[in-house]
Write a sequence for this structure.
């Protein structure tokens, strides 16, 4: 457990909750990032809907840029994942979140906070299959 | 409309800062959390816990008002059925997540930290989503 960072984890988690709650308070919607991406691709989303979805995503990207400008230590020490794995993993994340209607933010944070049974089921399943995948990759090779 | 766009931008920014502070934008940290039989790093549990407790408490307050500040109604998911799409979709998402340590939010927030890996991931995510849409359209036609 030498990598355990309880304080930054808790503080970051609270910020995530504040962002998700602010979005519900102002725009009345779940902060589900895979749903925002999916909506941007969809023909049935209106231009107005697309613009706030894009704005949320731009906010996410900006947060990384701004944080990195002030705390520039985090970029290093990243495992080199081969591009082909990044592509396969990304395809699965995209396909799976579109099919299952959500990811860690929509199901994991917002769904659990509304006591949604669907989101609880989804969260338990993606945590389990994620754990199983890492187990196979790191311990069965 | 401008207000909704600004609200979305600020909400996304705050949520993204949370991902950065908690290092959820570091795929190693995520993979070390999923590695329960190895050098397990339980941090993500506190990230999720902190986020869920905060959101639960604030949602309860927010839902006591009749309408959101900038919209005429709340837009909440209405589906409640636990179907095959939910289960299979979550299963596939988890496999992808376990392969790369990125989910959609952290991949976007990481673009400013290390450009290429998250960019590859985001483009692949978009293609995966389009792939599902094509497949589900065909299934409906049948």
């Amino acid at each position: 457990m030498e990598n355990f960072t309880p304080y930054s984890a808790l503080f970051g988690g609270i910020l995530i909750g504040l962002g998700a709650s602010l979005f519900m308070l102002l725009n009345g919607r779940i902060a589900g990032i895979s749903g925002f991406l999916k909506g941007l691709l969809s023909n049935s989303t209106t231009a107005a809907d697309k613009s706030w979805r894009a704005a949320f995503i731009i906010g996410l990207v900006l947060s990384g840029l701004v944080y990195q400008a002030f705390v520039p230590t985090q970029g290093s020490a990243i495992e080199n994942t081969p591009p082909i794995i990044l592509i396969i993993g990304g395809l699965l994340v995209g396909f799976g979140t579109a099919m299952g209607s959500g990811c860690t933010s929509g199901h994991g944070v917002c769904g659990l906070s509304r006591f949604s049974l669907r989101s609880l089921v989804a969260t338990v399943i993606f945590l389990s299959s994620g754990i199983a995948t890492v187990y196979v990759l790191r311990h069965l090779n | 409309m401008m207000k909704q766009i600004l609200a979305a931008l600020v909400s996304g920014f705050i949520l993204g800062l949370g991902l950065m502070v908690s290092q959820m934008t570091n795929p190693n940290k995520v993979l070390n959390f999923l590695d329960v039989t190895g050098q397990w790093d339980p941090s993500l549990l506190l990230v999720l816990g902190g986020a869920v407790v905060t959101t639960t408490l604030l949602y309860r307050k927010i839902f006591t008002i009749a309408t959101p500040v900038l919209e005429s109604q709340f837009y909440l998911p209405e589906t409640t059925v636990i179907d095959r799409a939910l289960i299979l979709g979550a299963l596939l998402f988890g496999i992808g997540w376990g392969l790369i340590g990125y989910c959609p939010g952290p991949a976007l927030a990481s673009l400013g930290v290390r450009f290429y890996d998250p960019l590859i991931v985001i483009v692949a995510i978009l293609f995966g989503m389009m792939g599902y849409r094509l497949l589900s359209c065909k299934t409906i036609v049948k």
Q: What stands out?
A: Residues 116-141 of chain B form the longest helix (26 residues). The radius of gyration of chain B is 18 Å. Chain B has a mean pLDDT of 94. Residues 2-141 of chain B form one domain.
